Each structure stands twice: as structure tokens, then as C-alpha cells.
Amino acid sequence: MGQSWVETEIAGCDLGDERLNRRLGAMLGALGERPGKSLPTAFQDWSNTKAAYRFFSNGNVSEDKILKGHFAASALRIRATGGPVLILQDTTEFNFKRAAPEKIGFTHVSTGHKLKDGRRRKHVICGFQMHASLAITPDGLPLGLTAAKFWSRAAFKGTAALKRKINPTRVPIEQKESMRWLDNLRLSTELAGVPERCVHVGDRESDIYELYCLAEDLGTGFLVRSCVDRLAEDGDTTIAKVMAQVQASGTHEVRFRDAQGKDHCAVLTVRHATMTVRPPIGKQRKYRHQELQIIHAEELDPPQDRAPVHWKLITNLPVATHMEAVHKLEWYALRWKIETFFRTLKTGCRIEELRLVTAERLANCIALCCVVAWRVSWLAMLSREAPGADPAAVFTQDERQLLDQATPERKRQAQRDLEFYVRAVARLGGYLDRASDAPPGTTVIWRGFSRLADLVEGARLATPPADTCG
């Protein structure tokens, strides 16, 4: 019999004590069965809940050790696939309300209502941040996290205030929080073991010249959205000025949803060019220039009720034709997958409702929830990419029998494949499963898993104990 998903994701973990290793597996299984439930609900009784609290506060436990097994499993999934692997990087914040916020740290300064003198009240938000790298296939199937960094600040100083005292470009990258982008790139590339297949994708915050140089040193690819008009060619011009002279190679259509869930279609005019990109003036002695590809995609005739789509991408991947430029635009469009992962983590697992009182305990709990959130996202996409897969690799025999019974009569004629059972779980979570409905997403799947766990427990309690009498 093969390993369960829990055994696979913790196989590479070693917390230095076999009891802690067993507790890790039991807790991951419990959270996976009831994602989004409170810790007491997930762990079912006071004994297991108390053991979980002790686990999170144990000095031998850390988020790195908890995620080590999942990282190893992600590496195996990467090597089992063919072709390029997109490694998406981004940062998210977790905000909390605490009587003693100094035990957790701070994320940013929030501006509140106006005071009588016209100034606005400002207060520091309690919480901490996570920077994660998520590996996916070009088809959008999430293979798992490859790196994660948690941190908080004892005190928060706004970027604008710092800029009045020092030029940020003069500060070494090693002394900035931006170093997390380089750390994750290095760790993810080493973990994957196939740098030539990796493409590291990031938003405008990842537009860091040192990242370009590190990618070259590691022999790996990057695709980032630019936010800086860098010096180009001989240094007497900039990227924007060069691109203004480049003729469009064609158009490309993208479809997306806005924050309100409304569908949009945008037609982009595409321009691309290869040019010499130079480092900032203060760093030209330390870093050499790079030969990079620039892609600009700007929406034609944007509507007035939303901002136009305008992507400025930089990459070290080949872009010699219009189709290659479109290919890179399609890859960048997949960056929203990590936003979906963060939403599943924060909303589905209800991270910001946790009552743990220190940053260390919260980070340990969130590390466990990261694996749960990945599995929900993986199932949602796997059922679309490989609907005919064997459901026994995901669901137990008892779970499949209960899902069969919960399936409406009109739906029971379908083939009992992975898609059938994922849709059955989604229906438990509120998915209507009408002919016109899109495939189920992560929200209804995580809700459905919680209900499925209750059905399994109810069936167990309803089954009379076996007669042990001779």
C-alpha cells in the first residue's frame, strides 16, 4: 500500500524526537481533514488540542523543520515532471489583534480617521509577514512550496521616512528586506536541482538588479514585472526610451477577473526587444551589465471603469518572435496562482483568527497550514488537468463510499474517477454543479473536506463495535 499524503509530506521531517514526528503527522492529518476550523475543532478534544499547543511552543520545533518534508516532496514532484517549472514568488501579511502586540511584531503603519487638528490618526498594525515560493507547471498545477521565510519587525519605520535619511539604492542588498527575493531564488533553485528548467516569476517588487545577476550565476531563468526605468544600451538612454521606438509585433488577448469577480477581456499590443540593461549608477562597479529581453504589453482601447492592463516584463529567457513574447505573457499571467494560494491559506485556513500569542507559535502553525492550503489548491487543479486519475490516490475507501451515497441520483452515472469525487466533495461545500458552472475552486473544496470529515466520523460512531467474544 502506498504512502498517505500526510506521510509523503512529512517523510523528510526530523524534529529530533520520534514523538514530535508522530505528533506532526497527526496534526497535519487533523488540519487537512478540517481546513478552516478552529484548532479545538480540528483536534476534536482537549487532550489533542493541548498537545498541539505544546507542539507549537516547543523550542525544537520551527517553521523550517515543519516544512522541510514538504519542500523535499515538492522537489520530487518537480523532477517527476517534464519541461519548464514556474516558481512564483510573493509576500503576504498576517494581521492580528493582540493585547500584547510586541510578542508578535508589526507589519505597517495604518492611517485612520481625522483628528480635530486635521491630521490623521496613525497606528502600527500587529502581525508578521511570509515570503513564499510556489512551484507550478505551465498548465497551472501547483507542485508545492520550494521556500518560505517568516519575519516580523520589533518596530516599523515607513519606507518614505527612511528615504528622507538615506538613498535606498546605496544600501547593500544584504541589509534590506528585499534580500528575501534572492534567498528564495537561491533556495528554490538548489532544491529543484534543475536550474535550467526553473523560471522564477515575480511582480514589480522583485525588480531587483541583484536578482538578475544571481539568476545568471545560478544558470536559471527569471521573468519579472518591471517598476524601474533602468539605464540601457550605452548608459545614455533608458529602457522606456528604447522601447518607445520599437514597433509592435502583434496583439494578444487576455481574460481575467477583477477583485469583484467580474470577467474582463483585454486586447494587448505587444512589443519586445533585446537590449543591454545596466545596473544603477551606485552599483556599476560591483555588477556588470546584462543582455536581457524586454516585453511591453499595453491594452488597446481600455474601458473607463477600470485601470488599463499594462505589463512591462524583463527576462533572461529567449524572446525572438511574437509567439515567444506571448508565451512569456501567458507565463506571467499564471502569477495569480500564488495569490490564490495565499487566499486559500488566509481565508480557508482562517490564519488571522488564530489565538496563539507569539510569532514563533503562529509561524509553526501557519507552516502546517501551508501544506494543507497547497493540497487543496493541488486537488482543485489536478481534477481539471487529470480528471480521469485514480481517486484511490487521494480518497480512502470509506471516503469514496460516503461520497457515493452523498451524490445525487442524477450524478451517479458518471465514471468514478478523480473528477467525480472532487466534485462530490465540492458539493458538500456548497458547489451547485450545474452544467453551466465552472469547475469547483478551492473555497468549496476546503468547505467540503470539513463536512466529509464529519461524515466519516459519524459513520465510524454509527458502526457497532466488532464482537470480540469467542
Automatic annotation (TrEMBL):
Coiled coil regions in record: none
UniProt superkingdom: Bacteria
Domain Transposase Tn5-like N-terminal: 3-61
Domain Transposase Tn5 dimerisation stretches: 371-464
PANTHER family: TRANSPOSASE, TRANSPOSASE TN5 DIMERISATION DOMAIN-CONTAINING PROTEIN
Protein name in the entry: IS4 family transposase
Species: Phaeovulum veldkampii DSM 11550
